[in-house]
Specification:
About 20% of the residues lie in helices and about 30% in strands. By secondary structure, the chain is an alpha+beta fold. The chain is globular.
């Protein structure tokens, strides 16, 4: 008799499944549930992924909380990485149908592995548990908890387990994603505190991991099966059933399953306790049926996918097209756009083109741009080096040298020593800089001096802090506020890093607060921007999570942290420009949002469901914003400029789309009188805030804009030159 064919891990696409999602072509279904569908998909370059989507009925009816959860799922997956999780290749939580593309994991879920082979042997349970504990440690170190750890969320591969499905993962302390008294998760694997609707902490993940390991070792969960209410009661009050668990594992798993979270080990302790004996690989420990299943899945990926299922024969015909009114047709004609990619500088350089298919859009007539007052050729190291107005001079840090110009003529006034942009700051009157230690400095302290230096001499430091090491490149002069200099520096005697405040008048340290050290692979300054606000010192710093930032507020008199936001994804350039007013800080990325300065909580979020026009995949939906006179200005998607009420987040007006160039969201707009100036793919565009229409465009590849109201001009910083445009 012929051998029974092994069932495929995929099922056919249905007639109403899409053909593509994002940049991926769908091949087959991997599974579907109440929240969404997971597909096997492939990119144009041949990369095979598991692509998770959310049902349209949920996406269209869900509030921002749901989309925040979906975004956090992709964030958590990126934190885990491809060692203990599925690598993330792309995500769009704000799409009409949110989606997440990850590595297609070659292996069964843990519950399927146990079904195939029976309870797993003790060495395999130990190796499995140690790796999962390390995965949770990575999450917890980034202030994220999983909250739904169960056998079906653990994939078993030849290289080790992978933790997946972070659909209800949450940032620690983020109460907005769970209502008080509401239990979220899977009842059989919840912790007692989670079952009671209390906060889910890292120790709750330890409880869930122990329950998963009990299942792996015995074939059953520690609290049985049944109705959710019965399971929740047993989780909270009953002793766990550890029948079938190998005796050497009993003391450790019993401790992990304690009702008291304080008695449970940490994930680090658990990983150490479970560490298997040296020798062999994870694959050596896998039972033969599991290895066979992995091999089958590996082969099936490159087989022809099953044919798409036809539509049911009884499906009613599609409704006839609804007639459109003349007024509606006129409205669509006037507001339609043929936004196409255009030439420009930096990340937003594309081939200029115009759509031949849309003849209904009339390109707005743009007037003649102003002629530059002056240009000066000078190289620049990065986007943080925007022009600074210091007294009557314009200062630029370029090529690591400090240069001062006459803002009226562009004439070079003086050139100072080598300094990085993050080591220079001003109070508007005086320019201060960190002084690199010399061979004469025995202790090599952190010191601040005034620039420019006298000819042939050096200014003495205005303050010197021997307790801190002035040699690391990550040392930063964050900002100057009145008499106070704020810094980021390492202790001279330990590896600890601190936020520091010191008096420029007395030269004495005012306070220090220990903070997170620089990341080993950080591509730039750790603290992106510091800004004094009415409520304290606002910091925007890089997060351990790639392409994300963290905001925090510190008491200006003590340095004590008043609040800190969980990591916020930010596609494209980091927000070197902080848009703040007396009540909020504003951020643009996947949405335009306002955080309250009092406690860091979101005040409003703008952009969900809006038509943003044609936008390159992977680029930010909302640009770095600017706030002025109660209005927040930002570019959106592939369309144009939008103005939003700073207090409520309500849309005030939108510039008519300009079809020949995409807006550049990586440069913050600049406001000057009744003009808003921002970059698009071909130049600097000026929009009238009264008529909401574009007035002119000056061709430039500038990546930083600094308005100078006193001199009635705007300074535009290009890669190799700076120019001044006069404004009316």
């Amino acid at each position: 008799m012929p051998a029974t064919p092994t069932p495929t891990p995929f099922t056919a696409l249905t007639h109403d499944d899409p053909t593509h999602v994002g940049d991926y072509r769908l091949l087959a279904r991997l599974g579907s549930g109440g929240m969404g569908t997971v597909y096997l998909a492939r990119s144009a370059g041949g990369r095979t992924v598991a692509l998770k989507t959310v049902h349209a009925r949920i996406a269209t009816s869900a509030d921002t909380t749901f989309r925040t959860r979906f975004r956090l799922e992709s964030d958590a997956a990126r934190i885990i990485g491809d060692r203990y999780g599925a690598r993330v290749f792309g995500a769009d939580p704000l799409a009409p149908t949110p989606w997440l593309a990850t590595e297609y994991v070659l292996g069964p879920q843990l519950d399927e592995a146990v079904r195939l082979s029976g309870p797993l042997p003790e060495p395999l349970v130990r190796a499995l548990g140690a790796d999962l504990a390390r995965a949770l440690t990575q999450l917890h170190n980034s202030a994220i908890t999983h909250r739904d750890l169960k056998p079906s969320n653990v994939m078993v591969t030849a290289a080790g387990p992978k933790l997946i499905d972070f659909g209800i993962a949450r940032a620690l302390g983020d109460e907005r994603l769970t209502s008080t008294g509401t239990a979220a998760g899977t009842p059989a694997y919840m912790s007692p505190e989670q079952a009671g609707g209390l906060d889910h902490t890292p120790s709750s993940d330890v409880f869930a991991l122990a329950a998963v390991l009990v299942f792996a070792a015995s074939g059953h969960g520690p609290f049985g099966a049944g109705q959710p209410a019965d399971l929740l009661y047993r989780v909270r009050y009953a002793d766990p059933d550890l029948t079938g668990v190998p005796t050497p594992l009993l003391p450790l798993l019993t401790r992990c399953l304690s009702k008291d979270p304080s008695l449970r080990p940490t994930t680090t302790e658990l990983a150490d306790a479970l560490r298997p004996a040296e020798g062999g690989t994870f694959a050596d420990l896998l039972p033969h049926p599991v290895l066979t299943d992995i091999a089958h899945r590996t082969t099936a990926v490159w087989q022809a996918p099953p044919p798409r299922l036809p539509a049911p024969a009884t499906q009613p015909p599609p409704p006839a097209p609804r007639a459109i009114s003349r007024r509606k047709l006129l409205t669509l004609t006037l507001t339609g756009t043929a936004a196409a990619l255009a030439t420009g500088g930096g990340l937003w350089t594309y081939l200029a083109t115009k759509s031949r298919e849309d003849t209904s859009t009339t390109k707005p007539s743009l007037g003649q741009p102003p002629t530059p007052s002056w240009k000066t050729s000078i190289a620049d190291p990065g986007p943080d080096a925007a022009p600074l107005r210091v007294g009557s001079e314009l200062v630029l840090v370029a090529g690591l040298a400090v240069n001062a110009f006459d803002p009226t003529s562009g004439k070079l006034l003086w050139q100072g020593p080598d300094r990085a942009a993050w080591s220079v700051a001003t109070d508007g009157k005086t320019l201060y800089a960190l002084r690199p230690p010399t061979s004469d400095d025995k202790t090599k302290p952190v010191a601040i001096e005034v620039l420019p230096q006298p000819s042939g001499k050096k200014n003495p430091p205005v303050l010197t802090l021997p307790s801190f090491d002035g040699t690391p490149e990550d040392t930063q002069l964050l900002c100057i506020a009145a008499d106070t200099a704020y810094m980021f520096a390492k202790s001279a005697t330990t590896t600890q890093w601190f936020l520091i405040a010191a008096s420029l008048t007395t030269g004495r340290e005012l306070w220090r607060q220990q903070t997170v050290a620089p990341f080993a692979d950080s591509p730039g300054p750790v603290i992106i921007r510091a800004k004094p606000v009415m409520t304290g010192l606002l910091l925007c710093r890089r997060s351990a999570l790639k392409d994300s930032v963290t905001f925090s507020l510190h008491d200006a008199s003590t340095g004590k942290q008043l609040w800190q936001q969980p990591p916020i994804p930010t596609t494209g350039a980091l927000p070197y420009h902080l848009a703040t007013d007396d009540t909020h800080v504003y951020l643009g990325s996947e949405s335009l949002q306002a955080l309250r300065l009092t406690d860091g909580t979101p005040a409003w979020s703008f952009g969900t469901g809006r038509d943003m026009g044609k936008k390159p995949y992977g680029f930010r939906r909302y640009g770095i914003p600017t706030v002025a006179d109660g209005v927040v200005y930002a570019v959106e998607g592939g369309r144009s400029l939008v103005a939003v009420d700073a207090r409520t987040g309500a849309a005030l007006w939108t510039e008519p789309p300009v079809p020949d160039a995409l807006p550049n969201g990586d440069v913050a707009p600049a406001v000057y009188g009744t003009l808003v100036l921002y970059m698009d793919g071909t130049g600097l565009r000026a929009v009238d805030t009264l008529t909401h229409r574009p007035l002119w465009r000056y061709p430039t590849t500038a990546y930083a804009l600094t308005p100078d109201p006193a001199a009635q001009r705007i300074h535009a910083r290009e890669e190799r030159q700076t120019l001044a445009l006069p404004l009316p």
